[in-house]
Design brief:
Elements (H helix, E strand, L loop, with lengths): L18 H15 L13 H16 L5 H21 L4 E12 L4 E11 L5 E5 L4 E7 L2 E2 L2 E3 L3 E5 L8 E10 L5 E3 L3 E4 L16 E11 L3 E4 L2 E8 L3 E13 L5 E4 L2 E7 L2 E7 L4 H7 L3 H12 L7 E7 L4 E4 L2 E5 H4 L10 H8 L7 E3 L6 H19 L1 H20 L15 H23 L1 H15 L2 E3 L1 H12 L4 H7 L2
Parallel strand pairs: 1-11, 17-18, 18-20, 21-22
Antiparallel strand pairs: 1-2, 2-8, 3-7, 4-5, 4-8, 6-7, 9-10, 10-15, 11-14, 12-15, 13-14, 16-17, 19-20
Helix pairs in contact: 2-3, 5-7, 7-8, 8-9, 8-10, 9-10, 10-11, 11-12
The chain binds zinc ion.
Length: 495
Amino acid sequence: MKTLEAPCEVSLVPKQRDRNSAESESLILRTIFRIHYFRCAELRETWFLRELVQCVIDALVMRFFRSFKFKVAISTLFSALLVDLAIANSSLDIKKYQVRLEVNFVNKSIAGSTTIKFNSSNKNAAEFPLSGLLIESVFLNGKSVLFEATAKNIKIELPKLKRASLNDLTINYRSTSTPGLVWSEKYVYTNFEPCTWMICSPDPALRAQFELELKVPNEMKSVASGTLKSTSAVGNKIRKETWFEPSKFSSYLYGFAVGLFTIESESVRSTTLEYLSATDTSNELKRKFSDTKRVISFFETKSGVPLTFKKYTQIIVNEDEAQEKHAFSILGKRFIDPILQDPTEDWIIVHELAHQWWGNMITCKSWDHFWLNEGIVVFMTAAYKQNRWGQAAYDREMELALQRYQRAIDAKFDVPLTYAGDYPSLGIKRAITYSKGALFLDTLRKEVGEKAFWGGVKKYTQENKFKSVVSQDFQKAMEIAAGKSLSEIFRKWVY
Ligand SMILES: [Zn+2]
């Protein structure tokens, strides 16, 4: 690509052709190749530009410049160019988050850093949301860089980077008031807002590895996304734990919990199932989670994908929580306590476990497809109850979903499952994404029959594991399993 020097202007004048034809072709070629881009050097090696040049040369040599084939080729390549430029300007190509944190229970504060490992791009700045973090310094590959931090975000200036290199962007910070952590006297845990205790992209389509180095009081237990790789002493009272997740998940699924808990555990194959509570006795923990193995077995069968974690932990806290994180869940005491009186009151265990497949392993690519997380999981909870407690339990879940969906209908807000606009309230949004989503799957199940429906669920899960997806991916798997087009029912409910 020697001909492509900054500012990326190339002229290819054909030889041995008649003058008028050569001039007009040259004019078009000059227009095509006058690609002025502020960092065009990094475009030089990209496939579409190489292909484009080759295509034009071929066109001239083969004298089919005006042919339909050539026009199609040019159109396709320019579409690719536009898409690539759009991606280049949207976000960093993040490969890994490396978080170092120390939690301090005396003043309920954190201090630490996030190192974002990313591939070089043509971006000259990076931007991340902020909430409650006080930024102290920013380094790129060990060198201090300029940044601007407000209450809502941080903008970091990026110098021109060596092509195709892996870079380290390290942001140091501390906080005494991040809304991303829930503190009590006995514990602290992360909620659904990871960008309040680590620096990250909130885009669910962006999946990256996660490493967490956590300094915790010796007497406290800790849990985090991934696998515990090492533990070492830091003085007499503090220990350092390093957790790592090699598979890539969306940032909102990463988290941790540290505290004084009652602990029980058992195992299923090579996975340890751990049960933690700040208030329960060992006996209560065993009774509450006695069906966990059965729930895992049901979802492994229906998904065709085994649970591969080394450890899955369920933590009971005093607050009204129902959170699925990668490899652990946080369950509110008020939601799980009824199970001691009535074992069929198991929805929170089942719902959050189902998310380890649908929502975590397979994540919606954008929040417009959030029903793929929640609608599927509400339905799967009902399907488990049908298997465990009988048809009446399934019918009850569907009846509840219908009652909640009715609220959206009454509010004249019965929008498609992929509705991308604003909702009048969180309740109405949930009535659509959770309840209407589950009812749609119940309808689809009746439409295609048991064999095709569960075949489609299995195909969708197996083919999309560790990916971010859109509704069309689900439709495609279902249509293949059903052996027919389902565009009518999807158009009615989903689009
Ligand atoms: Zn959920």
